[in-house]
């Protein structure tokens, strides 16, 4: 077929529509969405403001807050980079309308397997490959159950959360392995050369966030993730391979979590079956605070990056506060998480409340009402 | 059009809907419709798909509130039905085609769910409950054990449980929304007896069906709706099936601007396509440059055939051959690669990602082609979308506005742009003009015909017969999952298509009512 003739025919067919009503401008219905700024952009703006607030609060508490050593030891170091790495696949999965709660267990299983293989004197390269492959298999198993078997991801990954932790215990039992090569364990305790405030894990997160951000926001694959999450059926009708895409995401998630397992084993210089225990909820919370919609179809990697910084900053700043009870930290993060779910829904909640009032008025206003119908 | 509204029955009015209108956005689903239901009478409501029947039912069910018009009870008091509970309280019961019972509760518990008779200490009085249910079933002349669980009941039996529920709340008006669509002949006979029993007890029955012979057999009066408007209400004894078909179809069939064309080699060949329980042995072909319309009632399997060709659904047997190559089953991406485009039936749920921008929706099926070094650059995508929006004369404010900001007609243009921009060889359109205004409708018709004349093969599915006749070169008619015939342009009339689609095998002119 000659494309150009086809196009011109379409145009001429429509141009020939002379005075038909449809040819005139049709009234545009629906609401306009917030001027030139999309609501997403505004969400990120809110996070930036929050982050600035956190920094001011931290500096107000102690000028040491922004010192290289404090940033490294209490803000960007420790498990912050590791959690942040797991928020990236989590964000992608939530955007497609699913969830993966097995992330921390996968990391724990990777840690156990690593200890076991070191005990058995495997070469380090082979250990890395094996552990990452195990992560891929763990993720693929989630993906298989969700896409091919068609089970709800929440139930599937709650199941594998327990299953993978169980396998971690099975591999290592009550043993620990703590004699990893210093060359490798140093990457967990020393900052990146030339960047005294930066941990290796967080640097790796930044690089990966940039890559994931490009894929999500600038490639066909990324666009299909949003389409799947916003309307799975319409995505399918547009020829998008919904199941295959989700399967790939779960596999990717497994590999990243296994990698996190390696990083945190080196940082702690300990392989033990309960490594990374309970981190999955922090990972989900961070993704949601970053503006990833729990209903799917919305979110940005910039938001996820900012949310990671906000959580890291709040934790770091609170530790500086004299008399701050560490057990209160979950209250702050929980409150932030609730706020992040509530705020985007405010317009909808307000609309619903208004409608309820309207309906009540209409009912009471109308002369003989239902009550008479009942009394018959 | 002949009409004798309301006159003729001496029975008291059980429920009267007066001058009701209901719009959804720009779509006028119901306009100035009046319907009187008489006690002790079965009243049929018929009309083509989209005539407004289900909107009317939902108003009676309290699901929708009419924009204008009133609903009067038997004592001429106005009823305001704020919700389904209010409709039930007002004595209106709706029996749906496929009832939803609680599968793990007993039949009697389903009948009395939420208002079980109680004995001391607020315990359920099972004996009294079963006795009442038995009494109701006796009145209806049916035998179902009230103690058995609902799971495993046939659809016909489930409907009977729903009818028993209606009687247990002393419903004066019983609306049956296509109850016979899923029933066997014997079950329909039993339902006929039940309807007679209901009438004998003074209930008003509103019966909705596509099967006209049932209308004559079961009902004393019939109301016809067309395009959301009331056409006639009349006793069935003074009508023929032919009259009814004409009233449903109704319009002047004069204007047709059809240019004949010569048919080339078949581009698409569908051979003995079967999806078990859905459609059977469907074979047809379409040549490049031709519009083939697939007509039939909703539920006849039209859309399902289209979905199977495009690969949304799997088929069990048969082949789909495009350009001499057999298409892979159940793979929309393979269908797209082979050159098929598909404008689905449900624009909002299947055609568009409503929350996504207009431009992104247009580009959604062409993402791979828009890549540069693997990246989707905003400028490229924007130009592509703007170009196609202009070709289809889309009215929009900004390409980044969500699809929800557009009117129905413009939304459909976005879906069309999404597929036309892929330069398909075969374009499947399912209800291409559903819910869009008359002007845009004509525009879409012209577009489809001109695309065909440029060499695209078009498979068009439509419930609107004037649309079918306006665009089709040939019309394939389906009934109950089978292709019952392919009509050439010259043989195709609305009466002929309706007759084939409803199973009135004889030509429309020869039909005579088998009135009771």
Summary, kept brief:
The complex is a heterodimer of chains A (376) and B (516). Chain A is mostly helical and 376 residues long.
Helicity range of the residues of chain B?
Answer: 25-40%
Overall morphology of chain A: globular
- Tell me the helix content of chain A: 55-70%
**Residue-averaged pLDDT of chain A:** 85
Determine the N-to-C terminus distance of chain A: 70 Å
Note the beta-strand portion of chain B. 15-25%
Distance between the termini of chain B: 23 Å
Structural class of chain B: alpha/beta
Query: Uncertain runs of chain B with pLDDT below 50, 5 residues or more?
Result: 1-8, 252-256, 506-516
User: Count of helices of chain A?
Assistant: 17
- CATH homology superfamily of the largest domain in chain B: P-loop containing nucleotide triphosphate hydrolases
Largest sheet of chain B: 6 strands, mixed
Task: Please report the first level of CATH classification, the CATH class of the largest domain in chain B.
Answer: Alpha Beta
From the alpha-carbon coordinates, what is the Rg of chain A to the nearest angstrom? 26 Å
Mean pLDDT of chain B: 86
For the record, the count of structural domains of chain A works out to 1
Quick one: how many beta strands of chain A? 0
CATH topology of chain A: ABC transporter involved in vitamin B12 uptake, BtuC
Written overview of the protein:
- The complex is a heterodimer of chains A (376) and B (516).
- Chain A has 376 residues and is an all-alpha fold.
- Chain A has one domain (38-341): ABC transporter involved in vitamin B12 uptake, BtuC.
- Helices cover 70% and strands 0% of the residues of chain A.
- Chain A has helices at 3-15, 39-61, 68-75, 80-95, 103-119, 124-148, 153-172, 182-189, 200-218, 220-230, 232-237, 242-268, 280-289, 301-320, 329-342, 346-365, 370-375.
- The longest helix of chain A is centred in the C-terminal third of the chain and has 27 residues, at 242-268.
- Chain B has helices spanning 53-60, 84-89, 107-111, 126-140, 155-168, 185-200, 212-218, 241-249, 302-310, 332-338, 347-351, 358-363, 378-391, 408-420, 438-453, 465-471, 494-502; strands spanning 13-24, 27-38, 42-46, 68-73, 78-79, 92-95, 118-119, 123-124, 173-177, 204-208, 221-226, 229-235, 266-275, 279-287, 291-295, 317-322, 325-326, 340-343, 426-430, 457-461, 474-479, 482-488.
- Chain B has a six-stranded mixed sheet, sandwiched between helices. Chain B has a six-stranded mixed sheet with strand order 18-19-20-15-21-22, sandwiched between helices. Chain B has a four-stranded antiparallel sheet with strand order 2-1-4-5, with helices on one face.
- The longest helix of chain B is centred in the middle third of the chain and has 16 residues, at 185-200.
- Classes of the chains: A mainly alpha (376), B alpha/beta (516).
- At the A-B interface, helix 1, helix 10, helix 11, helix 16 and helix 17 of A face strand 5, helix 10, helix 11, helix 14 and helix 15 of B.
């Amino acid at each position: 077929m000659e494309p150009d003739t086809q196009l011109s025919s379409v145009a001429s067919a429509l141009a020939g529509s002379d005075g038909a009503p449809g040819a005139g401008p049709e009234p545009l219905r629906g609401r306009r969405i917030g001027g030139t700024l999309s609501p997403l952009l505004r969400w990120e703006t809110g996070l930036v403001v929050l982050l600035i607030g956190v920094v001011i609060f931290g500096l107000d508490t102690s000028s040491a807050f922004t010192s290289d050593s404090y940033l490294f030891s209490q803000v960007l170091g420790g498990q912050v980079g590791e959690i942040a790495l797991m928020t990236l696949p989590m964000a992608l999965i939530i955007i497609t309308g699913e969830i993966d709660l097995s992330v921390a267990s996968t990391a724990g299983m990777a840690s156990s397997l690593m200890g076991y293989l070191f005990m058995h004197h495997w070469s380090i390269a082979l250990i890395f490959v094996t552990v990452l492959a195990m992560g891929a298999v763990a993720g693929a198993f989630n993906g298989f159950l969700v896409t091919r078997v068609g089970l709800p991801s929440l139930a599937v990954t709650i199941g594998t959360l327990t299953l993978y932790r169980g396998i971690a215990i099975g591999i290592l039992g009550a043993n620990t392995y703590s004699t990893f090569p210093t060359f490798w364990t140093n990457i967990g305790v020393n900052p990146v050369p030339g960047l005294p405030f930066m941990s290796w894990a967080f640097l790796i997160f930044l690089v990966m966030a940039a890559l994931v951000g490009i894929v999500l926001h600038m490639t066909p694959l990324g666009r299909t993730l949003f389409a799947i999450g916003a309307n799975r059926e319409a995505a399918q009708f547009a020829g998008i391979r919904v199941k295959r895409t989700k399967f790939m995401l779960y596999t990717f998630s497994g590999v990243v979590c296994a990698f996190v397992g390696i990083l945190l084993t080196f940082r702690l210089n300990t392989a033990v079956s309960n490594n990374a225990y309970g981190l999955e909820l922090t990972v989900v919370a961070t993704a949601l605070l970053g503006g990833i919609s729990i209903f799917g179809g919305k979110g940005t990697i910039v938001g996820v990056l900012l949310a990671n910084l906000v959580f890291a900053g709040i934790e770091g700043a609170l530790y500086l506060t004299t008399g701050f009870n560490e057990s209160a930290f979950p209250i702050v993060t929980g409150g932030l998480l609730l706020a992040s779910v509530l705020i985007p829904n405010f317009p909808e909640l307000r609309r619903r409340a208004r409608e309820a009032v309207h309906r009540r008025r209409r009912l009471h206003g109308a002369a003989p009402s239902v009550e008479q119908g009942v009394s018959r | 059009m002949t009409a004798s509204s309301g006159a003729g029955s001496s029975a008291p009015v059980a429920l009267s809907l007066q001058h009701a209108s209901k719009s959804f956005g720009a779509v006028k689903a119901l306009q100035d419709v009046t319907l009187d239901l008489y006690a002790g009478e079965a009243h049929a409501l018929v009309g083509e798909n989209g005539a407004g029947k289900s909107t009317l039912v939902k108003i009676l069910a309290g699901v929708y509130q009419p924009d204008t018009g009133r609903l009067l009870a038997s004592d001429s008091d106005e009823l305001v039905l704020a919700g389904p509970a209010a409709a039930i309280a007002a004595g209106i019961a709706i029996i749906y085609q496929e009832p939803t019972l609680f599968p793990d509760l007993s039949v009697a518990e389903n009948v009395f769910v939420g208002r079980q008779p109680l004995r001391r200490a607020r315990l359920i009085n099972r004996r009294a409950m079963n006795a009442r249910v038995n009494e109701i079933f006796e009145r209806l002349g049916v035998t179902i054990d009230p103690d058995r669980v609902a799971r495993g009941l046939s659809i016909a039996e489930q409907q009977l449980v729903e009818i028993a529920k209606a009687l247990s709340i002393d419903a004066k008006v019983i609306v049956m929304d296509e109850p016979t669509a899923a029933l066997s002949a014997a079950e329909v006979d039993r339902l006929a007896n039940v309807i007679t029993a209901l009438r004998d007890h003074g209930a008003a029955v509103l019966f909705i069906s596509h099967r006209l012979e049932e209308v004559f057999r079961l009902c004393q009066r019939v109301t016809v709706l067309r395009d959301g408007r009331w056409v006639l209400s009349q006793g069935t004894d003074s009508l023929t099936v032919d009259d009814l078909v004409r009233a449903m179809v109704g319009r002047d069939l004069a204007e047709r601007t059809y240019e004949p064309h010569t048919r080339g080699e078949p581009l698409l060949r569908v051979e003995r396509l079967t999806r078990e329980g859905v459609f059977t042995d469907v074979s047809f072909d379409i040549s490049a440059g031709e519009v083939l319309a697939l007509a039939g009632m909703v539920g006849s399997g039209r859309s399902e055939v289209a979905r199977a060709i495009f690969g949304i659904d799997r088929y069990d047997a048969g082949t789909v051959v495009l350009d001499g190559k057999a298409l892979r089953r159940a793979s929309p991406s393979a269908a797209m690669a082979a050159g098929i485009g598909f404008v689905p039936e449900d624009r909002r749920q299947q055609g568009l990602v409503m929350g996504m921008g207009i431009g992104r929706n247009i580009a959604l099926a062409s993402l791979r082609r828009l890549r540069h070094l693997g990246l989707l650059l905003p400028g490229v995508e924007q130009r592509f979308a703007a170009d196609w929006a202009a070709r289809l004369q889309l009215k929009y404010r900004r390409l980044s506005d969500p699809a929800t900001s557009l009117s129905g007609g413009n939304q459909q243009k976005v879906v069309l742009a999404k597929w036309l921009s892929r330069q398909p060889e075969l374009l499947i359109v399912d209800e291409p003009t559903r819910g869009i205004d008359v002007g845009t409708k004509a525009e879409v018709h012209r577009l489809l015909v001109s695309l065909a004349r440029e060499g695209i093969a078009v498979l068009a599915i439509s419930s609107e017969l004037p649309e079918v006749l306006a665009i089709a070169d040939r019309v394939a008619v389906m009934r109950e999952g089978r292709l019952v015939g392919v009509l050439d342009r010259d043989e195709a009339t609305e009466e002929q298509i309706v007759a084939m689609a409803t199973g009135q095998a004889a030509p429309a002119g020869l039909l005579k009512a088998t009135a009771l």
